[in-house]
Amino acid sequence: MGRLPLSLWLILIILPLLFPDVALGKTLKRDVKALNEIKASLGWRVVYSWVGDDPCGEGDLPPWSGVTCSTQGDYRVVTELEVYAVSIVGPFPTAVTNLLDLTRLDLHNNKLTGPIPPQIGRLKRLKILNLRWNKLQDVIPPEIGELKSLTHLYLSFNNFKGEIPAELANLPELRYLYLQENRLTGRIPPGLCFLPNLQHLDVGNNHLVGTLRELTRNEGCFPALRNFYLNNNYLTGGIPSQLANMTNLEILYLSHNKMSGAIPAELARIPKLTFLYLDHNQFSGRIPDAFYKHPFLKEMYIEGNSFRPGVKPIGFHRVLELSDSEFIF
User: DSSP 3-state assignment of 14?
Assistant: First the structure.
């Protein structure tokens, strides 16, 4: 083979100097640096499976465990990071926010502490953020509202405090929002009701106040919502008849609040309503007959209220146990 022309040699020498983040056929240096910083912060539990110099794999070495990459032009980028259920201890690894091509970040079921850094808003391509079952603290950063591609947000079973950020209403693709089992206070942002794709909203087991009426008073509220979990909070007021407009609703879980008043007959017009939990509130009056004739309603919990004598529940009642499989997507 002949020698390479001088001009080509110059290109091969100068190109890495002009574009230091790009190495031909290799992983973007920015991502390599970020993964090594994460590796250093996470400790020995992932070190044993993260071998080699390239997180996306090189030669006979596979990609680092939990790391998924894709090719963009002449280089590779990290698109998914899944390191869960390995008892990681320590603060949220801020270097994660330098992986700008991430579409999935899953660090659930560890022992991460401290706040989610506001730099999380840099991950503009993120679709799934799963941080449930950790020990994260402080407020939920409003910068999460900048993640316009987000479809799944799992922040449940942590120690978050403060209010639910109103900025979460800026997530047009959001389908699943899990915030239960935290220490959240204040009212549920009414803007959430305009999310066009939201199917599951769980804010149970917090310290939230307010009324359903102020949350659902706008026309066209929660158009896609199927599962609505508000249990174990401090909600007051009655059940507004406007809930009947949420025609996709299947589960309405209002147990263990301070709600009162009569149960509106309009609620029985929700065509797919399957589970209705009203127990341990201050509801009164009677249950409209339409509920007992509803074709899909399987269970209706009513104990712990002030209903008239003779009012009966529907279905076989049991202690609710939430299995971990319900959170797997």
Answer: helix
Residue 127 burial (CB count, 10 A): 17
Q: Name the phi and psi angles at 211, rounded to 5.
A: -130, 155
Arithmetic mean of pLDDT, 49-73: 91
Of 49, 100, 62, 97, nearest to 78 by C-alpha is 100
DSSP state at residue 11? H
pLDDT digits (tens, 9 = 90+) for 296-313: 999 999 999 999 988 899
Domains of the chain, CATH where assigned: 82-317 (3.80.10.10)
d(CA 323, CA 153): 18
Q: How open is the CA angle 233-191-256, to the nearest 5 degrees?
A: 10
Tell me the two tokens of residue 51. 């071998």
User: How many CB atoms neighbour CB 66 within 10 A?
Assistant: 17
3-state secondary structure of 251: strand
Task: State whether residue 314 is helix, strand or coil.
Answer: strand
Distance CA 92, CA 100 (A): 16
Contact 269, 242 (CB under 8 A): no
The pLDDT tens digits for 225-261 are: 999 999 999 999 999 999 999 999 999 999 999 999 9
User: Which residues, listed in sequence order, are joined to residue 76 by a DSSP beta bridge?
Assistant: 27, 71
Give me the residue label for tokens 């794709």: 197
Chain centroid, CA 53 distance in Å: 32
207 phi and psi angles, rounded to 5 deg: -125, 40
Q: Which residues have C-beta within 8 Å of that of residue 112, sequence separation ≥ 6? A: 88, 89, 90, 91, 92, 131, 134, 135, 136
Give the predicted TM-score (pTM) of the model.
0.88
> Is 277 in contact with 252 (CB distance < 8 Å)?
yes
Alpha carbon of residue 257 to chain centroid: 23
